[in-house]
Structure prediction request, 1096 residues.
Amino acid sequence: MSTNAHHKEWPPSDPKIVKEELLASTKKGSSNLKKISKIMGILSVLGLVGLIGKFFIDGGDQTQWGYIAAILAFIFSVTGGAPMVAIAPFIARANWARPISRMAHVIGASALIVNIIIMIPLLWVLPPLVVEGARRRSIWFEAPVYSPHFWDTLSLIMLAIAGIGLLYVSALPDFAIMRDNAEGFRKKIGTFLAGGFVGSTVQWSTLRMRVGIMSTLYFFIYIFVHVVISIDFSLSMVPGWRDAIYPMAHAMGGIQGGVALVIILAWIMRKYGNYENYLNINVFWALGRLMFATSLMWIYFFYSAFIVFWYGKSMSDNAWLDLLIRGPMVYVFILGMLFSFIFPWWWLIWNKVRNSITGPVIGAFIALTGVFFERIRIYVPAWSVDPKLIHDKWLSVIPGTLYPDIWDILVLLGSISFVILTVIFLSRLIPFIGVWEVQQFNLLAKPVKYIKAHGIRVAKPD
Amino acid sequence: MQQRDNQNRLSQEYTNRVLLNGTLSTPRWWYPLVSVLLFFVVIGFILFGIQIKYGLGVTGLNRPVYWGLYITTFVFWVGISHAGIMISAILRITQAEWRRPVTRAAEILTIFSLLTALVFPLIHAGRTWRIVYWLMPYDAARGIWPNIRSPLFMDPIAISTYLTGSTLFLFVALIPDLAVLRDRTTGFRKGFYTILALGWRGNPRQWKMQVVGGILLSALMLPIFVSVHSIVSWDFAVTTAVEGWHSTIFAPYFVIGAVHSGVSAVVTMMALMRWGWGWNDFIRPEHFDALARLLTVVATAWLGFTFLELLFALYGLDAPEIALREMQIFQYPWNMLFLTFLLTGYIIPVPMWLFKRVRTNIALMFWSSILVNIGMWLERFLIIVPGLARKSPFVFTWEAYSPSWFEWYVLFWSFCWVILLMLLFSRVFPLVPLFEQKESEVFSDSIKIGRATVPTIFREEEEEEED
Amino acid sequence: MSKSILGLFLDPNHAADAMDGLKESGFERGTFDVLTGTPYPEGAFGEYVPQHRLFRFPAFGAIIGFTVSLFLTTATQLAYPLITGGKPILSIFAMLIIMYEMTMLSAVIFSVIGIIFESRLPNIKPGIYDPRITEGYIGVVITVDDSDLDKAQKVIEKSGSEEIKVV
Prediction:
């Protein structure tokens, strides 16, 4: 037996124990979990009611839909950004991400339904590219009649398919474990999804290849989705707003939110699932560093855009500053800056905070709030712009501050609740900590002593 | 002592002997090559003198193309300098083992390319001494003041910060190797290395400071590294006067392009080091493999940024900008340059790097990395010059820019200068960090999993640190 | 009068045994140390490394750099009160870039000072040493009074040293 006992928190070395403990996550759940699920269910229904209500009341007025667009942008970008936390370490062959990669993939697959539902009324309200015979600025240069509506819907569907595909290929061995060890409907699901996986050499090597291909595909689709939706649903609705960095800044915010979601879910699993041995300090320390890096990336992308507009001082540059910084969204901007950068940066810069469990979790909640404020800051004023001005060279009339109504709040609560409900539902079906990943980790990494120093011996097979 | 111990690890004595073969003795090719380079460099200095005497008329610069080859090459060398911290800092923080043979060479490439980059604004100014008035304006009735809010003012501060930081970083990491040199030399050289080694003994406290300090400096240098090329990019991006420049994407675009060209330059350098000094045991095909994989990711990201830049150039439905892009992509001679830039910057090298056989073939990696840098130089040229050539709306001021042989020679001089400096450095200090190599041997081992022998690495436990 | 003993080892395990032996023999913690030509995992020889305060240096340096750059940029703009591009005299966003660079520069410089200081360098009187340490030998060094010289030597010999030097 290895010297696992020295490490305070370390996965058990026996693969049988690992399998049993992690498979148990699909069955573990206190009565509180049922209560939470019921509440999430009710809020989800209310969210749908809110969306339908909004459509019937404000269906013809684009300027009232900014918050709904912001909610869609928030949900798809943060849930879609979560798999990036698993993809990058997978490609870099970093072992620390093994316990959280399944959770990251699950989050990535969890918002499919919410995204499509919110998208439908937005597509109805989104103005066409050609208005009164003239094409407004858009990335769809030829402006055929089905753009951008078709492409944006397609991109979200592609993201959903890629997310589900990535979850599926990376969980394949665990489906086989469920087929062989679970009972009842879980066994049936495992049998169906395992697809004849028996753990042969060829299957393992093609598994790695498949996960690599799906990961790369997911990454490209994720960026593509950010580019098209951020441009079509905000940038191209403001005359004169030409901002090449904006899609990447949008994607970066999504990754920041994705990291935050993974940290929060890992913390919940550790605390309420008692998975301290798997979700130990190393995982949170690495995630804390990632969280810190994303907050720095936020300020970098923001400042890169800001300094160009501030120095340029052309009419359209000033309009950007008025619309998104010092005009109707000045307080949201301040809150966004505080929660996206200043608070997470100042909190996570301390070693003691990063090197703890709760430190990164608090940072995650702060950053997630910051991403939300940022989405509001951009989408609400963009949709509030008077559609009649769309062909102008620059925005000459800055809209006033739009406040959310009851329908917006219901949609917000409902969409978040539905995502949580989906995650809870998936937790009943799939182990949230990858069994095969931890078992492989135990094969590759062992706590050892080097003369008198304690450390970990990590095998590097490739 | 043997070359390998009973666990097939390279011995420290062997490591010292082989990696110091360029410092403690002179390779046969060193003197001839340095002589040739010195000759070209001296010619370059003579040409600078001629330019100072006759003015910028010896170049092809003229209204409206005031920024040409000199500024292109300035941005190019700043870009190359980004290799050092990318490899040294980021790979140190992520504990990538394959960084080890490369870090010092990348750091000195950074330092020397930054020094070269700093020289170019001086050359470009024409009347070089006026830079002094610009840096330290005194209260006189000249009526000409510098614009202290201009990014041009921020450039020297950013580049000097990066240069100072890189130099200090290099020195700190060099101390243990200076101790090795102290222990292996005699006479004047021993005295020189003894002073620089600061009395290093190699006790655990000193090694701990090396490790912790290395990570600390890496973490501090990373934000500087990102900021430097961003500030250089803002020389162009903040102005509305030139078509194609006023774009918010310039900062990350330039940074990612710098990483692309810098890491490619490191690949070139590594191949030359392996061939020149025979360091086959230390610079191995797997290092090129890892670098090529990194380059593939970086190059693809760079291509994405290039695409976004072009997309948004056309997005604005701005007639002058669209006309500029049409000229850049479809009109001779710009179309040939654009095609060459795309082919050499991405289309040829990156698909090659998708194959492991290419990634581990050092000659192919060498040539593909040179292609990349040709492409990246052209990228900077295509950003700077076409926009300026069509700068103002009056057609009669539009001029084609044709660099003179003078400017081409200065470009050639800059390569000779950097290579010369690196060769001179190699005679005084080791190009491959000795202690990093030895550390990797200490930390590496192998285990048997079934019938397979798998290499392993020992990772220390992370401890509670003070704030 | 005190003397220094240096024991040279080829096998790191023997060096660790020597360190253990010296500890068990009652020698004070700060009087013996291990010298290596390459970093070994911390604690590999059972050595004692006191906590460092390295991270205070960059923090202090950053504060200095921030203050100096704030003063420099503010004073420069007030000294040359020119309106450029319609920007205010005290243009915070332009100042921020220079302040950022100088803050980082100062943090780096102070970090390097900190690394050198915390390494207890420059070490003018390095003490007993052997150049073979950078060739792969491991040195265990101890400073003792004359009365304990034999005891310390015996411990080091017993652990399997290749050679012992006394100064």
About this structure: The longest strand of chain B covers residues 452-460.
